[in-house]
Amino acid sequence: MTITQEAEFCIDLHCHSTASDGALSPQELIARAGDKGVTHLALTDHDTISGLGDAQTAAQALGISLIAGTELSCLWKSHTIHVVGLDFDTSEPELNAALARQNDNRWRRARTIAEKLAKLKIEDLVEKATAKAGGDVPGRPHFARVLVEEGVVKDAAQAFKRYLGAGKAGDVKGFWPSLEEVVCWITGAGGIAVLAHPRKYKLTATKLRALTGDFRQAGGRAIEVSTSGQSSGDLGFLAELCRRENLLASQGSDFHFPGAPWCELGSIMKMPDGLEPVWHHFRNPVGVTAAV
Ligand code: AMP
Ligand code: ZN
Ligand code: FE
Ligand code: FE
C-alpha cells in the first residue's frame, strides 16, 4: 500500500462519519485523518451533508483541508450506483432540497426493509436500527448491526450475505432517483460528480463501460480509480477506463470504522501515472504546480 499520489499531500476523497453509517463522529474522523497524515479530506456521507459543519471546524483547527462531499445513491438500469459529489456549494438550494428528498426516501426505504424482514420476527426493527443510527435515518449497516445483536447472524458480512446484500430481501431499490438526476444535483451546485468504487457493482466490463459512458453523458467528470479492497488488476482496469473515457481520476478509502486494516483513512493504492487527478480541478486546486 502506498499513501497518496503527490509526495507533499495525502488526499482521501471518500469517507463516512456518524452523519451516515460511519462509526466516528465528524470530529473524531478528522482527528484520525490528522493522525494518519491526511492533508486533504472529503467527507462523503450517504445522501447528506449534515456532518460537514462540525468536520470543517475540526479540520480548520488541525490544518486539514476539508473538501465538501456527499455520496448519493441512485439507479442505473436497475443497479444501485453510488455517485460521490465533491467541491460543491453546500448552500445551493436545489441540492439541499434534493438531499431532503433523499432523506425522506431513506426513511420510507427503512420501513420497507423492516417490513420485508418481518419474517425474522425481530420486534421494533426500525426503532432498533434508528437507535443504532443515533436517531437519524438508518441505513443497511445499521440494520446489519441489529441482526448481529439479536443473534440472527454472526456478523455484518453474514447479515448482508443473507438478508441485506444485492438481490436479498433487504435490498430495496425502488426509492432512488436516476443516475442523471443525481449528477445534475452535484453539477448544479458547482461540484464534480465522481463515479464511486466502480468495481463494487459486479458489472461485466461491457456494462461498466456502458455505465461510465452514460455517467459522462449526464455530466459526470471523474471516476474513483483507487479505493480500498481493490486488486492491482482492478486498478489497472479502472485507470484504462478513465483514460478511454477521458475522465478525471479520484481516490478515496471509503473508510467507515477503525479496526479494518484493509480500509484506513489516507491509505490507498497509488494511482497509475498518466491520469488527470480530480483535485487539480477543485475551485482551490491542489498540487497543480507540483504535478504539471
Ligand atoms: P445503504 O446506503 O443504506 O444502502 O448502505 C450502503 C452501505 O452498506 C455501504 O456504503 C457499505 O458501507 C455497506 N455495505 C454494502 N454492502 C455490504 C456488504 N456486503 N458487507 C458489509 N457492508 C456492506
Ligand atoms: Zn456506507
Ligand atoms: Fe458507496
Ligand atoms: Fe462510501
TrEMBL record:
InterPro entries: PHP_dom (IPR004013), PHP_domain (IPR052018), Pol/His_phosphatase_N (IPR003141), Pol/histidinol_Pase-like (IPR016195)
SMART domains registered for this protein in UniProt: POLIIIAc (SM00481)
Domain Polymerase/histidinol phosphatase N-terminal, chain residue ranges per copy: 11-76
Cleaved signal peptide residues: none
MF annotations from Gene Ontology: 5'-3' DNA exonuclease activity; 5'-3' RNA exonuclease activity
Record-given protein name: Phosphatase
Species of origin: Marinobacter vulgaris
Taxonomic lineage of the native organism: Bacteria, Pseudomonadati, Pseudomonadota, Gammaproteobacteria, Pseudomonadales
